[in-house]
Amino acid sequence: MDMTGEGLQLGRVSGVPQSPEEAVLDRVPNAHPGTHYVARFTCPEFTALCPVTGQPDFATLVIDYVPDRFLLESKSLKLFLFSFRNHGSFHESCTVEIGKRIVDLIQPVWFRIGGYWYPRGGIPIDVFWQHGTLPEGVWAPDQGVANYKGRG
């Protein structure tokens, strides 16, 4: 893959995948391999469906990673996350599935995902998954999502 985006969804008309299995995640080369830094994606309007009731569940997802050779391409991430809108899965499964899929693709030095889910039945369920160890001397800020008290 080169930096022109050849073969990527980037720069092309792309429909929303109907399921996470159908969604394609893309990666691009890291212009600074060997330099440790944190990249962050925040999705404050993530939606999936409860697998039991079919009702929508809402979350803020915060994805932090220290890239190695590849970066996660943001348009493909957006489409991948959108694909969960018709997908029935528990909070824990959604959060970990997203994290594992990204790690498998970009093979980062370090990765973490925080899924900050709004309450259903009065109880928020926050889910955290991490892969690897944050390199010494690299700053990874707090994810910045308030503990539940209206989430904001």
Automatic annotation (TrEMBL):
Pathway noted in the entry: tRNA modification; tRNA-queuosine biosynthesis
Enzyme Commission number: 1.7.1.13
Pfam families for the chain: QueF (PF14489)
Active-site residue list: C50 (thioimide intermediate), D57 (proton donor)
Keyword tags: Cytoplasm, NADP, Oxidoreductase, Queuosine biosynthesis
Taxonomy, superkingdom: Bacteria
Key word Oxidoreductase present: yes
Keyword Oxidoreductase: yes
Cellular localization per UniProt: Cytoplasm
Function description: Catalyzes the NADPH-dependent reduction of 7-cyano-7-deazaguanine (preQ0) to 7-aminomethyl-7-deazaguanine (preQ1).
Name under which the protein is recorded: NADPH-dependent 7-cyano-7-deazaguanine reductase
